[in-house]
Amino acid sequence: MPRLKVPSQDFFLRRESFGGLLCSIKHSSVYILNSTGYDILSYIINGHESFEDKDLIEYLHSRYPNIELNRIKYDINIFLYQLSQEGFIEIENARQEHINRIKESSSPEFRGILGVEPYVLSAPLSVLMELTYRCNLRCMHCFSSSPRITEELNTEDWFSVIDELSVMNVPNVFLSGGEPLLREDFFDIARYLKAKNIGACLLTNGTLLTRDLVRTIKEDTSIFKIELNLDSHIPEIYDMFRGVKGAFERSLEAIKLCLEEGISFRVNVTVTKLNINHLQEIASYAIELGIPEIVFVPLRPAGNALSAKTALEVDPTTYYNALSELHRFRETLAPDKRSAIVSEFDRNMMKYINPAGMMPACGAGRLHCTITPQGNVKLCPTFPDNLIAGNVMRESLRKIWTESEVFRKVRNPLSLPPQCVSCPEIGCFGGCLIRGMNAHGKLLGGPDPYCPRLLHITGG
Q1: What CA–CA distance (Å, rounded) separates 52 from 34?
Q2: Residue ranges of the alpha helices (H) in 64-210?
Q3: What's the predicted TM-score (pTM) here?
């Protein structure tokens, strides 16, 4: 008898025009379901956590009376197996062996949302909540131009925002800044997210983390991951990049605390001229520390990075050559360590080599959005303060998400630059919007200058 394996409070279904989404609040996984898949999971979650096949078959046959019973049985078998592979349900071994012999693909889709053409969603999959622009560091590249003093939503304002996120069935948020831990009400907000069954990822520079704070985050909030930084393994370079002497040692202490307390975390490495020749060394250093995930992220031309562009920005060809070398280095590692290193090479280069796996390079306004400390809604945190879609203190986030001209524009394939409209990989939707805007002077004014196809890069 199939049985639901994951506690039902750890995920939920969200109805969409194409079927629905299966969203986890324990991590950022989101899966697309067509109508059949949505109906199957609705049946399981709504009071049938253990069920007999015949009952599920009868239920689906009542929903789709024109479909033959044999086809329904076949689709159920395949779909339940896919659910078991993703860890959502348990099925008996005999059934797994039987399904393994079936070579055809199933009718109900069960695929990561980033692997398919973007849909117009009824609500964001995630929202980045910029709680403050105050910060205790002065990072050269900060795309929010922190530190700076601005108006900030108060605790009750953020509670109201979270209430609407809950009603909209937004599964996850990112708590960011500035430095979000500078908010005195940080844990009030984090606990309220937990009360509303919304998962969270904390983006912090780590310098304010203590053992007690890490334990409180782990035990008393719905924060499922912390994102830290490791832009260099050389203290002097790291401190210069982060603008404060001693930042490296304090960041390293935060990494060790997360390792010791067993909380899920990753480190981000922003690729710049300061570290472009040391990416392999940074990766090796991180692996030696035992860091489970090292993500090499591109510099975004926004905020403080605009004034430091000459000192920091790496040209596209040099950038991809460095990532290609990093990729080759990764392949020399043991499999358990190899999987720890992630970069834009994987997202763009390998997808370019394998077009069937192309994924949207930018989900801004399509999959996610940002709410600033003042309540302004933006495509993503890198966009300037004068390009906003609305304000949550004046109108609902749902209205902004569905009706804003800015959001509607980036979702319209006809708004893409001509080079992108004619590209066979239109699924990437023009690449990074802020890089394209910075290069061409306006939103969707031209393609992402780091597009591998434009650069005629083939990887390897």
Answers
A1: 22
A2: 69-85, 93-100, 155-167, 186-195
A3: 0.87
Q: Is omega for the bond preceding 427 within 30 degrees of 0, making it cis?
A: no
Strands of 99-160 (E only): list them: 110-112, 126-130
Q: What is the CATH number of domain 126-409?
A: 3.20.20.70
ω into 147 cis (within 30 of 0)? yes
With b meaning 16 or more CB within 10 Å and e meaning fewer, what string describes 253-273?
A: ebbebbeebebebbbbbbbbe
User: What is residue 74's three-state secondary structure?
Assistant: helix
With CA atoms as reference, report the closest residue to 161 among 139, 128, 209: 128
**Rounded-to-integer distance, Cα 201 and Cα 198, Å:** 10
CB 248 within 8 A of CB 285: no
Whole-number Å distance between alpha carbons of 213 and 208: 9
Handedness of CA 24, 30, 31, 35 (dihedral sign): positive
Instruction: For residue 339, give the 3-state DSSP assignment.
Output: coil
The residue ranges of every structural domain in the chain are 4-101, 126-409, 411-454
For the chain, helix, strand, coil in percent to 5 are 45, 15, 40
Name the strand (E) or helix (H) holding 34. strand 30-34
Per-residue pLDDT for the chain (460 aa), expressed as one digit of tens each? 455 555 556 777 888 888 888 887 777 777 788 888 888 888 877 765 566 677 888 888 888 888 888 888 888 877 877 777 777 777 655 444 443 433 333 333 333 333 333 457 899 999 999 999 999 999 999 999 999 999 999 999 999 999 999 999 999 999 999 999 999 999 999 999 999 999 999 999 999 999 999 999 999 999 999 999 999 999 999 999 999 999 999 999 999 999 999 999 999 999 999 999 999 999 999 999 999 999 999 999 999 999 999 999 999 889 988 988 998 899 899 988 888 888 865 654 444 433 433 434 688 998 899 999 999 999 999 999 999 999 999 999 999 999 999 999 988 878 888 888 887 766 677 888 999 999 999 999 998 888 877 777 544 4
Q: Give the CA radius of gyration of the chain.
A: 23
Residue keyed to tokens 């080079």 = 419
Cβ neighbours of residue 148 closer than 8 Å, sequence gap 6 or more: 133, 134
Give the CB-side neighbour count of residue 438, counting CA atoms within 13 A: 22
Query: What is the fold of 4-101?
Result: Arc Repressor Mutant, subunit A (1.10.10)
| Angle between helical axes of 247-261 and 211-220 (0-180°, round to 10) | 40
3 state DSSP class of 31: strand
